Automatic annotation (TrEMBL):
Chief subcellular location: cytoplasm
Organism: Aminobacter aminovorans (Chelatobacter heintzii)
GO cellular component, one term: cytoplasm
Subcellular location: Cytoplasm
Gene of this entry: cmk
BP-aspect Gene Ontology terms: pyrimidine nucleotide metabolic process
Name of this protein: Cytidylate kinase
């Protein structure tokens, strides 16, 4: 295996890429960055200050303040923050500031796993391995519903599915860095897989790509 490797993981919301990224980072002893949290942090700052999500000047200010060492997953994982994040993520100036920070992270001496929407295409086009993780919108909605119910909440499947489809449209349809697989990405459809099967498939892809 090369001394320092970079693994890029992209895909739509709810495909399981976050869990895969964490498992791969643990397995290969790599630093991990969930780049979605950086867009969520910008959205969260705007919401907290009561600024509109299309206020470009304040969004730029917020993006400059994002500190990769202090991303509070608990606060940032709220559903509303994810929705808001996909709105600030269309602002090119915000993307540029966050991408610079993400690229600096990717240079971690021990190597890194980054997951998001544009890692293989924009942030780390030279990554050693690129994975594009997908699952059908219905399966992703079902997983989200199960997660909400496991946490004692309740929600309706149709509403969740509509949210997922809307977020996919926003992420694939934006002009700057839309969600799409890099030409050299390995596609991994997890619709029919549980997390163990997905992890094992991802590990096979990485090992093959690294030639070990
Ligand atoms: O992955 P997560 O759901 O946390 O991402 C929230 C939003 O941030 C996404 O819907 C997307 O619009 C944006 N995002 C992005 N580029 C990334 C990661 C996330 O545009 N690399």
């Amino acid at each position: 295996m090369p001394a320092s490797i970079t693994i890029a993981i992209d895909g739509p919301a709810g495909a399981g890429k976050g869990t895969l990224a964490r498992r791969l980072a643990d397995y290969y002893h790599l630093a991990l960055l969930d780049t979605g949290l950086t867009y969520r942090a910008v959205a969260h700052m705007l919401i907290e200050k009561g600024w509109p999500l299309d206020d470009v000047a304040h969004a730029i200010e917020a993006a400059k303040l994002v500190d990769l060492g202090h991303l509070d997953r608990k606060v940032l994982s709220a559903h509303a923050v994810g929705e808001a994040a996909s709105k600030v993520a269309v602002i090119p100036e915000v993307r540029k500031i966050l991408v610079d920070k993400q690229r600096a992270f990717a240079k971690a001496p021990q190597g890194a796993v980054l997951d998001g929407r544009d890692i293989g295409t924009v942030v780390c086009p030279d990554a050693d391995v690129k994975l594009y993780v997908t699952a059908s919108a219905e399966v992703r909605a079902q997983r989200r519903l199960a997660e909400i119910e496991a946490n004692g909440g309740s929600a309706d499947f149709t509403g969740i599915l509509a949210d997922i489809v809307r977020r996919d449209e926003r992420d694939t349809g934006r002009a700057d860095s839309p969600l799409r697989p890099a030409d050299d990405a390995h596609l991994l459809d997890t619709s029919e897989m549980d997390i163990e099967a997905a992890f094992s498939a991802a590990r096979d892809i990485v090992d093959r790509a690294l030639g070990s």
